[in-house]
Specification:
Layout: H1 7-14, H2 18-25, H3 35-48, H4 54-61, E1 66-71, H5 81-93, E2 97-102, H6 107-119, E3 124-136, E4 145-152, E5 157-161, H7 163-177, E6 182-185, H8 191-206, E7 214-217, H9 225-236, E8 252-255, H10 258-270, E9 280-282, E10 300-301, H11 305-322, E11 329-332, E12 336-337, H12 355-359
Parallel strand pairs: 1-2, 1-3, 3-4, 4-5, 5-11, 6-7, 6-8, 8-9
Antiparallel strand pairs: 10-12
Length: 362
């Protein structure tokens, strides 16, 4: 004979109907059950050690309370892996278990994973990319679907970082410090780089700086410390390898990510230039175990990986609960993290631009 505590036992101890117990323990008490009665039911359930029968709930609600997360690599990345931890924690708060399939970018594994998820009758699917991707072809599925760190060609809901606003923020930060000769390392060839550099250019164009004073240098898709080092040396030296004069070289560098910015810091030090006294450096990502620990600590823009996971899970849970498709596009801000690598330009440079020149891009 089973000793399992049942909803009827909770109802008897609380002095209420089984329907009332169901309303309270399934989160539907508001508007149906008084607060005092709901408290009494919860107390009775706690006293008896009652736990819901998940199998019975699944049959009744036609849900398994399981969400699948399909990814091309974030599970093996401590950086982008914050998408995973954010989604997992937020799903758990809503009573869902998150099951992860990491395909390492293999299309055949992706198809197999979706088929397996479908056989297991999961309630919905998150699709998360390690690098920002545009117009991806999401998996073919009838399940509720939300994309994280990528946007689809089809009108699926997606959550991505607002890279363009971050690019604007980098330009504004350096202009407000008084910089006029600014170079960006990175741009075309990658969606994130294009978004950051396009907005960066727009703010500088609005500030009406001389064309030769600012530029965006395309460094390809390899955003590494080595590449940042090499391009910084090229930018700050002439054809003979000599350091350019203080009157002609940039006073600020905006790097497309923190690894490129770290390479810039190393190169500038090798060239005998002090950061931020001679040159300011701004990165992008706020990469763990790097941005806050290089010398000087890096001013950068933080990618909201954890928040992307949380918001994507929230949107998916809402779609599952309402049985309505979610097509909301969310672009999350990338906040500026000011540390020690930025400051005013050398005193011989021009004064700070008036606020009106920058205001239109706020």
């Amino acid at each position: 004979m089973s000793n399992r505590v049942k909803a009827a036992d909770v109802a008897r101890l609380a002095g209420v109907s089984r329907t009332a117990v169901s309303f309270v323990l399934n989160g539907r008490a508001e508007g149906n059950i008084s607060a005092a009665t709901a408290d009494r039911v919860r107390a009775a359930a706690a006293e008896l050690g009652y736990t819901p029968d998940r199998v019975a709930q699944s049959l009744r609600l036609q849900r398994t309370n399981v969400i699948g997360l399909l990814t091309d690599g974030i599970a093996s990345s401590p950086f982008a892996g914050r998408i995973l931890s954010g989604a997992m924690d937020r799903a758990a708060e809503s009573g869902f278990v998150l099951v992860v399939a990491d395909t390492q970018g293999h299309a055949d594994r992706e198809v197999e994973a979706v088929e397996e998820f479908s056989r297991r009758r999961i309630d919905g699917l998150l699709y998360a990319s390690m690098k920002l991707r545009e117009a991806v072809q999401p998996p073919t599925t009838s399940l509720p679907l939300v994309l994280a760190n990528c946007s689809g060609a089809d009108p699926h809901a997606f959550v991505v970082p607002d890279n363009a606003n971050g690019g604007k923020g980098a330009a504004r930060h350096l202009l407000e410090l008084g910089h006029r000769r600014i170079v960006m390392l990175g741009g075309p060839g990658d969606p994130a780089g294009e978004q950051r550099s396009g907005a960066f250019r727009a703010v500088l164009a609005h500030a009406r700086l001389p064309g030769a004073a600012t530029c965006v240098i395309g460094i390809g898709r390899m955003w590494s410390i080595d590449v940042g080092y090499q391009w910084t040396v090229r930018t700050f030296t002439d054809s003979r390898g000599h350091l350019r004069s203080a009157a002609t070289r940039p006073t600020a560098v905006f790097a497309v990510n923190d690894r490129v910015a770290t390479g810039a810091l190393l190169a500038l030090g090798q060239l005998g230039l002090r950061v931020p006294h001679d040159v300011s450096v701004v990165g992008f990502d706020d990469q763990e175990q790097l941005a806050a620990h290089v010398v000087p600590a890096l001013t950068t823009f933080a990618l909201p990986f954890r928040q992307m996971g949380e918001m994507a899970a929230d949107r998916l849970v809402a779609a599952i609960s309402t049985r309505e498709p979610v097509r909301l596009a969310m672009r999350l801000p990338c906040p500026l993290v000011v540390r020690e690598s930025t400051g005013p330009p050398p005193s011989s440079d021009s004064p700070v631009v008036g606020g009106s020149e920058i205001a239109a891009h706020r």
